[in-house]
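stage 2 :: seqdesign
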C-alpha cells in the first residue's frame, strides 16, 4: 500500500472523440482498453442509465455526466472532455470504511468534484491527459501497442472524514481520489500520484517475479538506513519517522516498482521537454540498471529516451 501521508494508498495523446462518436469508433480510438458501458458509467455516478435513454453509448455517457455535474458547467465540460479524449468516466466512491492499517479505519464518503472541489477534477483531468500524451508518444516510438492499459479507467472522487488520507488508491481499473488528501494540492504532485497508481493496476504480480531478487538484496545490504539506500531509491520520498517510501518495511517490491515507473515517467518527460537528466536512475547502481531495463522492456515497448550511462567500461 502507498503511504497515505506521503502519496496515497494502493489496494492491491489519443485523437479527440467527436460529439457523435459511436461505441465502435470510441472502442477503436481506445484500442487498448474496452469502453466503459453506459450502465457501468451510470452506477459510478449513482444514477439510473434510463435517465439518458437516447443516442449511442458515448452520447448517453455524456448525458449522464451532464446530470452528474451539471450544477457546475465547468466541471461537466472537464469530465466530458476527459471522457472524449481518454474514455475515463468521472464518478464518486460509495460511502465506506477504509482499512488504513496502523492509522485505523478511515470513513470515506462520496464527493462530487464541483464548486470549490472542482480544482481536484482540474488537477486529475490534466494529469491524466498528460499521462495519455506521454504514453501515446511512447507507443508511437515503440511501433507497436504497449503492454499497458491507461485509458477507459473509472475515476472516483471521495472525501475522507477527520483524516486526510488516503490521497488515492487503485483497484480493478479504478482510481479513487481524495479531495481532502494531504498531497493533492498541485498538478505535478497529482500527476505523479496518478501515474504511480495506474502502474499498480498494470503490475499484476510482475514486480514480484521480476524485481524481487535485486530488491531483497538491497534490503539485505541496507535495511532501512537512508544513507545506504539513497543510490537505489527511485523516488526520494521519506515516510514520516521512517525511511524512503520504496523501502519502508511492509511496502515491499510492488511500491518500489511503482516508484520506478514514476521515475521512468519523470526522466522521459525531462528529455522530451529538451532537458538533460543529470543523475539517471539507471546509472547509479547495477541493480538500478537491471530493474530499469526490465521495466522498459515489459511495459514501455523498449523505449528509453535517456542516453546510455556508460561510454567506456561498465561498472562492476
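stage 2 :: out
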Amino acid at each position: 500500500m502507498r503511504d497515505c501521508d506521503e502519496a496515497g494508498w494502493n489496494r492491491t495523446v489519443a485523437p479527440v472523440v467527436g460529439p457523435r462518436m459511436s461505441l465502435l469508433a470510441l472502442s477503436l480510438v481506445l484500442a487498448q482498453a474496452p469502453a466503459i458501458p453506459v450502465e457501468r458509467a451510470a452506477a459510478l455516478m449513482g444514477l439510473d442509465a434510463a435517465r439518458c435513454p437516447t443516442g449511442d453509448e458515448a452520447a448517453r455517457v455524456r448525458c449522464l455526466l451532464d446530470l452528474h455535474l451539471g450544477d457546475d458547467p465547468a466541471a461537466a465540460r472537464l469530465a466530458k472532455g476527459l471522457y472524449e479524449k481518454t474514455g475515463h468516466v468521472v464518478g464518486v466512491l460509495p460511502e465506506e470504511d477504509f482499512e488504513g492499517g496502523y492509522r485505523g479505519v478511515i470513513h470515506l464518503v462520496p464527493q462530487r468534484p464541483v464548486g470549490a472541489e472542482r480544482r481536484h477534477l482540474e488537477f486529475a483531468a490534466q494529469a491524466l491527459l498528460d499521462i495519455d500524451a506521454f504514453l501515446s508518444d511512447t507507443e508511437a516510438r515503440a511501433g507497436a501497442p504497449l503492454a499497458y492499459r491507461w485509458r477507459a479507467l473509472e475515476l472516483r472522487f471521495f472525501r475522507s472524514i477527520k483524516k486526510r488520507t488516503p490521497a488515492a488508491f487503485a483497484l480493478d481499473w479504478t482510481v479513487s481520489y481524495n479531495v481532502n488528501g494531504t498531497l493533492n494540492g498541485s498538478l505535478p504532485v497529482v500527476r505523479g500520484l496518478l501515474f504511480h497508481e495506474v502502474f499498480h493496476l498494470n503490475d499484476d504480480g510482475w514486480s514480484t517475479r521480476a524485481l524481487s531478487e535485486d530488491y531483497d538484496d538491497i534490503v539485505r545490504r541496507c535495511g532501512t538506513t537512508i544513507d545506504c539506500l539513497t543510490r537505489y531509491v527511485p523516488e526520494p520520498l521519506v515516510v514520516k519517522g521512517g525511511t524512503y517510501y520504496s523501502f519502508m518495511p511492509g511496502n515491499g517490491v510492488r511500491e518500489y516498482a511503482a516508484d520506478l515507473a514514476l521515475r521512468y515517467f519523470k526522466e522521459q518527460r525531462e528529455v522530451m521537454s529538451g532537458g538533460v537528466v543529470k543523475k539517471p536512475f539507471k546509472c547509479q547502481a547495477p541493480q538500478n540498471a537491471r530493474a530499469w531495463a526490465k521495466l522498459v522492456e515489459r511495459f514501455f515497448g523498449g523505449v528509453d529516451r535517456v542516453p546510455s550511462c556508460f561510454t567506456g567500461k561498465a561498472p562492476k
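stage 3 :: structure notes
- The chain has two domains: 4-203, 206-299.
- The longest strand covers residues 154-160.
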